[in-house]
Structures are given as C-alpha cells and as structure tokens.
Specification:
Pfam families: Arm-DNA-bind_4, Phage_int_SAM_3, Phage_integrase. By secondary structure, this protein is mostly helical. It folds into 2 domains: 150 residues, Tyrosine recombinase, N-terminal domain (DNA polymerase, domain 1), CATH 1.10.150; 198 residues, Intergrase catalytic core (hpI Integrase, Chain A), CATH 1.10.443.10. Helices cover 55% and strands 10% of the residues. It has 14 helices and 7 strands. The strands form 3 sheets. A 3-stranded antiparallel sheet has the order 3-4-7, with no helix packed on it. A two-stranded antiparallel sheet has the order 1-2. A hairpin with a 4-residue loop joins β3 and β4. It starts with a strand and ends with a helix.
Length: 368
C-alpha cells in the first residue's frame, strides 16, 4: 500500500493525496506509485483535464470530501462498493460524455443483482454531484434517471429470517450439544440480549457488570482497510446502550469466564484482566466476523433445522419481545435501533402473525 502527496489542486485549492492498496509486493506498489505521480505531472489534476474520466473524479471526491469524514470501516465498505460495482460501470469513460441512458441501464443492472442497489446508486450520484459542483460537468446525469422498484421473488418473499420461540429453544439445545461452552455462551447471549453479532464479538469482561446483570454495549467488531479486523465505537448514541440480562445468562457467563481462564492458561495466556475478550480464538485474538455464521450454519445443517442467519436471531429476539407485549420504544432502546422504522417493520410482521392466529382462534371457536 502507498499514500502519496501529489500537490495542491488549483481548482479546489486542496492538498491532493492518493492511496492505493492490494499490491502483492513492495516493488509493485512503488511502480504503481511512480506511474500515478507521472500521470499527474503529465496530464494535470482531474479537475483541470479536458478529458477527466469517472475514475479521476472518483479519486478526487474520495480524497477531498469523503476519506476524512467517515470511520475506517465505512470507508472500506464504500471503496469495496466502488471497486466491485460502480467503477466497472463507468471505467475509463470521459465523465462529460456519460449520459442518463447509460446511468439508467447500469442502475437497472444493479437492481437485478443487488439487494442494496439504492446505496450503490447514491454513491455513484455523489461523484457526479461533486463533478457538477467543481464545474467538471454541466449537469448530473443521475438527476434524470428513475430508480426502478426491485421485484421480490417468491423465494425471497417466503423466506422468514427468524425463529419462533420453540424453534429458537430447539436451536440453542442443539448448539449446547454440538458446540463447546464458548459458542453456547455466545449464541445464548445473542438470543437473550438481542445484540448484534459484531457487538458481542467485541465485548470485554470489563463490559459485564455481574452485580447489576448488565452488558455494556459501546463498540463493535468490523473490517477496516485491507479487510483488517478492527474495533471501533458504536456509530450512534442509540447504539451505545446497557442491556439488562436474565439470571441464567449471567450464570452462564460466570461459568464461561472460569473455564476460559483455565483453558487459556494452558495455552500460555492470562485472561484474568478487564481487557480480556470474552470471545477469543486459541491465539487470544478476535474471531473473524464470519465465524458465528459458519458455526450456526453447521448446527442447522447437521440437525435439519430451519435456516436463518445470525442476524435473524436478533430479529427473533425483537419478535419475541413484541409478542410479550413490550412497547415499540422499549424494543428500540434495547436493540439500539437508530431509526424507529426498523423497529416498526418487525412490529408489523409480529402483528401480522397475531392477526392470523386470531382468525384461527375464531374459526375453532365457531366449529366448537
């Protein structure tokens, strides 16, 4: 990877840097850096060029407006979206010659293959909007496109990413049988706290208060640049929260803490410190973010259980809370939803199921 200073852009009056990564060797990075600097000396800054490509303006927008205003994990996801979807759609094209019909065609393709195609469209639009503000183009072609509605397939509409109370209990029983205490503790907390999988993976023992039976959620495990696993604070005030836990879950945590100390000591690690990760691999490092998915999928397949995602357990927790009569505000606070609409969507699902149940009860009453 390299991060080079290019100079001051005369149009934007800002320092211009370029960052590139993904090189196999230091020599490859040095060659790419030299070519990049030579390109600027030969052709000038993107804002000066008569033929600025989309790639040029994307780089300019990234450096001058985006990189310093987002967290590293967000930057990593954004750059991945551009690399995989947006840049291939406009690669090497003169940004002044990109027309609305081409943008519409690419947007339709994103709709057909991506669930979050709206996010991809918004990112692409921001590059064109930046070019417009910098007088690189005269109009934004995305202003004239129509965002197509995604057609939900039968398989997608029928897929319910949650368990019933009975299905959740069955899943946890199989986890207890098939996996070790470490993972049973993880999935029990996942089910009984409603926390996100990455929030639990980031927990330290100092985040647990055994006196008040609470979990302090204040950080999350995510991927930074070059897919490096990093810990960062939760993004919003809603995400930072204290979750009340039940007696049995706290008892299980105590058991796991004792077992972890004994097990890790044999591997040469002293875990009796506040900063010790609750869930750590045999190198006493964080688990990869995808490991819970793999563990869950293995248990489901081995025992013929309904297939849901790890995030679906969080959805299940939310659904059970509503079925118990919890208020929308209480559920939003417990799960850390920033947007109450997220909570409302799950509430709508629960009330839909309850309406079906009411109809069945009425029919049975009439039959008797």
């Amino acid at each position: 990877m390299f991060h080079s200073y290019i100079g001051v852009d005369p149009v934007t009056d800002k320092d211009v840097y370029r960052k590139r990564s993904g090189f196999k060797t230091k020599k490859e990075a040095e060659i790419a850096e030299a070519r990049l600097i030579n390109d600027f000396h030969k052709n000038g800054f993107p804002s000066q060029r008569k033929r600025s490509t989309f790639n040029d303006v994307y780089d300019l927008w990234l450096e001058s407006e985006y990189i310093d205003n987002v967290q590293e994990s967000t930057l990593n996801k954004t750059m991945r979206d551009f690399k995989n979807h947006i840049v291939p759609s406009f690669d090497g094209m003169n940004i002044r010659e990109i027309k609305p019909d081409h943008c519409q065609s690419e947007l339709n393709k994103w709709r057909d293959k991506l669930v979050n195609y709206g996010r991809i469209k918004n990112y692409a639009n921001r590059v064109f909007d930046y070019a417009l503000r910098m007088d690189i183009i005269d109009s934004n072609p995305f202003d004239k496109v129509t965002v197509p509605k995604r057609i939900e397939t039968i398989e997608e509409s029928e897929f319910e990413n949650f368990y019933s109370k009975e299905e959740l209990n069955e899943f946890l029983e199989y986890v207890k049988e098939d996996l070790d205490l470490n993972w049973y503790t993880y999935f029990r907390l996942l089910a009984y706290s409603g926390a996100r999988k990455s929030e639990l993976l980031a927990l330290k023992w100092s985040d647990i208060d055994f006196d008040t039976s609470t979990l302090n959620i204040n950080k999350t495990l995510t991927r930074g640049l070059n897919n490096k696993i990093i810990v960062q604070p939760t993004k919003t005030a809603n995400g930072r929260r204290v979750i009340d836990m039940d007696y049995d879950s706290m008892k299980l945590l105590k058991q796991w803490k004792m077992y972890q100390a004994q097990f890790m000591l044999k591997l040469g690690f002293n875990t009796n410190t506040p900063d010790q990760h609750i869930f750590a691999n045999t190198r006493n490092n964080f688990y990869s973010i995808n490991v819970p998915n793999d563990r869950m999928r293995n248990v489901q397949k081995r025992n013929g259980l309904k297939q849901i995602t790890v995030h679906g357990v969080r959805h299940t927790h939310c659904s059970v809370l509503f079925s118990m009569g919890a208020s929308i505000k209480d559920v939003q606070a417990r799960l850390g939803h920033t947007d109450i609409q997220t909570t409302m969507n799950i509430y709508a699902h629960v009330t839909k199921e309850e309406k079906k149940d009411t109809a069945d009860k009425f029919a049975k009453f009439m039959e008797n």
